[in-house]
Structure formats: C-alpha cells, structure tokens
C-alpha cells in the first residue's frame, strides 16, 4: 500500500509539472490550436479549477494501483515496461473513452486526438516512473 | 421607446427620432490566445429616441432605449457565439439595454462627423451601469442621422466573470470594446 502511494505521489508530481507545464507552453506557442476551447462545453467560471489541477494526482494514484496489480505482466527494461504499460492503458481506456467522447460531443477530431496523445504520454511517463520506483 | 428632443437656441423643442432597422452593435474582445468580434447585425425594432434641450442649457437630455437581444450576438464561430451568450447570461437576461440619458451638447448634424460625449445607462446581465460614451454624429443627404458610439466596458462592471478555460490557462480579458451604430430619422417636432 505504501509503495502504491509513494509511486503514485512521485508520478503525480512529475506528471503535474510535465502536463501543466507542457499545456502552458503549448498554449503560449500554438495558440490557434486552442481556439476551439472557447466553447460552452468547457467550464468557464473557475469553480472546478482544483479538480482540473488535481487530475495528475488522481490519474497517477489510479494507475499506481493498476501497476501494482499487473506489473508482473510487463517484462524487460524499465523504459520498455513503461511504454508497454502506457500503450495498454491507451488501448483499453483512452481509445474507448475518446471514441464515445468524439461521437457524442461537439468537438473536433483534432481536439480529441490531442487528448488521446496527451493521455498516452501521461500513461507512458507514469509507467516509466512506476517501473523505476516500484519494479 | 427612445425619444430624441431638440431645440433651437430660442425656444425649447422636442424632436423624436425613429431608430431605423439597419443598426448594429459590435463587441470586440480578446483572450490570451485570440481576438474575437461579435455583433448583433441588425436591430429589428423601430424605437424612437427623444432629445430635449430647454433653451441653451447643456447637457441635452435624452430619453429612449435600445433593447438588444443578447441571443442575436454572432461571433462568426458557433462555439464562441454560444460561449459569449453563456457568459452574458442570455437565458436569464435576454436583453442588453442601452438607455440614453444625455449629450454634452446638441449635435450640429451635418456631413462632417462631430464628436460628442454623452451618458448612457447600460443594463447587462441584470446589472445597470452609467457610462460615458464617445459619439460621432453626422447627417447624410437623405437626412438620415448617423450615430456611432464607442466605449470600453469591463465584464467585471456587470459582475460577469470573463470566460476562462482549462484551469485559467485560457482566459478572456476583462475589457470589451463596444461599438454601436445607430441610424435615425427625424419624425416629429413639438
């Protein structure tokens, strides 16, 4: 349990920095890519900011538990284990979620693709962290 | 109902000007990723504006209202249009009302554009605020009076929160530049 928590916390801190730092940088350098977010689908009054910024930790703790249960299935170098873990998450979680999201919400394919890529990168980074901290 | 009252230097007079239908209101704003421009392309009501100036006294008193349907704002982008309507609470407060209060002086009304300031009360999202507006008055050959009013307002003036997305990483500026173009035709003196 302690390993799950510590691995999750470590991954959460790293993902927080990389994810929100990357998002901030992307918005700064590629602003046109984010114009479609001016859409009432997205919360606009700030009352859920704490939920938005805690996502990295929710994501990391959930994946840390998943890693603890199934880490024996991922073999090889820690980077390879992290990559495989990320792709497994991408296939079993991201693809179906993005599928239903794109089919039901008024969002662009580019937007949903970017979410898939973002989630996949997060899962790979988390997997690499778990493979190092909780092999 | 908007009534615009005018007078000669000697005698007070009341003039009613009817608002023609080819009037527009535009708001220009920006976010940290883009600029937006939204307009109500055509004012559909034939309101009148009354201007009353007793003798040489200034300011000139105005009365009348422009009631603009917030739902008619169009930003040439459906998502942005919906977002602006939501921000302006279009469902709860369907009208943006501009109440004309006064002009610093009576306009000369000729071909040249004449800058005049005036006071209006803007009622938006249930909040009313008195604002000084910069007008430009002119009159063309068909005796149509053209009024262009410009002013910068702030979302916060009307207790509105500028839209912010993704935890505030995308955020609209508080400032909005409002430009309204109104065309009048004189209908009566009294």
Structural notes for this entry:
- The complex is a heterodimer of chains A (135) and B (190).
- With 135 residues, chain A is an all-alpha fold.
- Chain A has one domain (2-133).
- Chain A is built from five helices and no strands.
- In chain A, helix 1 packs antiparallel against helix 5 (109-133) and helix 3 (55-70) crosses helix 5 (109-133).
- The longest helix of chain B is centred in the middle third of the chain and has 10 residues, at 78-87.
- Chain B has one helix at 78-87; strands at residues 3-4, 13-19, 24-30, 35-40, 48-53, 60-63, 65-69, 95-103, 114-124, 127-139, 144-154, 164-165, 170-171, 175-189.
- In chain B, 35% of the residues are buried.
- Helix content of chain B is 5%, strand content 53%.
- By secondary structure, chain B is mainly beta.
- In chain B, strand 9 and strand 10 form a beta hairpin.
- The chains are: A mainly alpha (135), B mainly beta (190).
- The A-B interface holds A 20, 23-24, 27, 31-32, 34-46, 49, 52-53, 106 and B 31-34, 36, 77, 79-80, 82-83, 86-87, 161, 163-170.
Distance between the termini of chain B: 17 Å
Our estimate of the beta-strand percent of chain B is over 45%
Which structural class is indicated by helix and strand composition of chain B? mainly beta
How many helix segments of chain B?
A: 1
Strand content of chain A: under 5%
Adjacency order of strands in the biggest sheet of chain B:
2-5-6-8-9-10-11-14
Output the radius of gyration of chain A: 16 Å
Number of strands of chain A: 0
Report the order of strands and helices of chain B.
EEEEEEEHEEEEEEE
Q: Give the oligomer, counting copies of the same chain as homo and different chains as hetero.
A: heterodimer
Major sheet characteristics of chain A: none
Give the N-to-C terminal Cα separation of chain A.
14 Å
């Amino acid at each position: 349990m302690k390993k799950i928590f510590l691995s999750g916390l470590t991954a959460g801190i790293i993902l927080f920095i990389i994810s929100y730092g990357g998002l901030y940088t992307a918005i700064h350098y590629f602003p046109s890519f984010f114009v479609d977010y001016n859409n009432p689908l997205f919360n606009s009054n700030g009352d859920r900011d704490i939920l938005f910024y805690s996502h990295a930790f929710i994501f990391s703790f959930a994946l840390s538990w998943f890693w603890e249960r199934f880490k024996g299935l991922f073999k090889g170098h820690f980077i390879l284990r992290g990559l495989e873990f990320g792709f497994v998450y991408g296939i079993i979680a991201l693809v179906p979620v993005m599928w239903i999201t794109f089919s039901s919400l008024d969002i662009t394919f580019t937007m949903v693709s970017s979410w898939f890529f973002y989630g996949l990168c997060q899962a790979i980074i988390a997997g690499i962290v778990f493979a190092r901290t909780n092999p | 109902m908007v009534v615009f009252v005018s007078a000669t230097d000697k005698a007070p007079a009341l003039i009613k000007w009817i608002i023609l239908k080819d009037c527009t209101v535009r708001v220009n704003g920006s976010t940290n990723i883009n600029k937006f421009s939204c307009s109500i392309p055509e004012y559909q009501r034939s309101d009148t504006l009354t201007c009353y100036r007793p003798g040489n006294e200034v300011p000139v008193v105005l009365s009348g209202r422009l009631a603009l349907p917030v739902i008619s704002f169009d930003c040439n982008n459906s998502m942005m249009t919906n977002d602006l309507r939501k921000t302006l609470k279009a469902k709860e407060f369907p009208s943006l009302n501009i109440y004309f209060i006064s002009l610093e002086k009576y306009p000369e009304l000729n071909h040249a554009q004449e800058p005049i300031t005036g006071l209006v009360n803007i009622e938006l999202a249930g909040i009313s605020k008195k604002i000084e507006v910069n007008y430009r008055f002119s009159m063309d050959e068909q005796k149509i009076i053209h009024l262009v009013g410009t002013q910068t307002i702030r979302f916060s003036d009307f207790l509105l929160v500028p839209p912010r997305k993704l935890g505030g990483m995308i955020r609209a500026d508080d400032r909005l530049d409002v430009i309204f173009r109104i065309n009048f035709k004189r209908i009566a003196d009294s």
